[in-house]
Amino acid sequence: MKLATYVGDGGPRVGLVKGDRILDLAAAAQAAGRDPSPFASMLALIDSDDAGLALARELGERGGPSAPLATTRLLAPLPEPRQMRDAMSFETHIRQSGRGSRALEARAKGGEDAFRAALAAPTEPLAEVYRQMPIYYITNRLIVAGPETTVRWPRYSRVMDYELEIAIVTRRTRANIPESEAANHIFGYTIFNDFSARDRQRVEMGGRLGPAKGKSFDGANVLGPWIVTPDELGDPQTLNVEVRVNGETRAKGTTAHMLFTFPQLLAYASQDETIFAGEVFGSGTVGNCCGLEIGRFLQSGDEIELHVERIGVLRNRVVAQD
Predict the structure, then answer these.
(1) Which whole-number Å values give the CA distances from 100 to 17, 18, 59, 117, 206, in the listed order?
(2) What pTM, to 2 d.p., does this model score?
(3) Whole-number average pLDDT of the chain
């Protein structure tokens, strides 16, 4: 199933995307004489667990009040996650983004020629820590935006960047999740555009504490267009992806060769820590799928499309503020 949050009568609604239409699950439940409470929000559906998902499937087969998807305003499928974390799972991105950061530093000191020379240098070997454990950081769950929104770039930054990631949404609340059971704690998958203010991030990372304002500004965490349940998506490590800016393909890649799988990431993060239903875990950027790796950043007004096989397209625009 593809499960979305959208603007309907009276506010946000939870819908089931079927072809070119979106089914209002709460209205469909009421029309069928069933309890609509699992569809009060996406978090409510997640909390309802198997019973809510089974009812959504039943209503999808039965049908009910729906609207054309093309004229429906989608919101982030999970507008306010209970927690939000982002990992570093792709070796190509880790190595190339390190080189890109050094190139940005070279540009700050020596201009564009220095930037291009540093970008052409060999990448450094992968630090061993990335193979030892799934590295992640906690990001701001309260600044989530959805598809088709315009991200107003922070005034303190001049280097605008995108990042194509896959993200999972968790189900069920538990600590110390065994790796063998972790797949049962995945509610579904969505696309994550981790917008990044690279010039500020480059300076912040010198403090060795992790990104702050480089990753945290209103609208920086974009999710969408919907959540795809595991039974429909299949293996998340077999997805082809593509980045387009203003219709031009800037990168193609694949989710294969993650250093750690999502179940491994969940098992690690849950060690003596409760992972709650409705959290978001980003995969980290797929190799080549950000401007920092290829030396091409965004300009004000650019439209960014992140295509992920078996999920869909997440589209946004960025504009600089005065």
Answers:
(1) 39, 41, 49, 11, 15
(2) 0.97
(3) 97
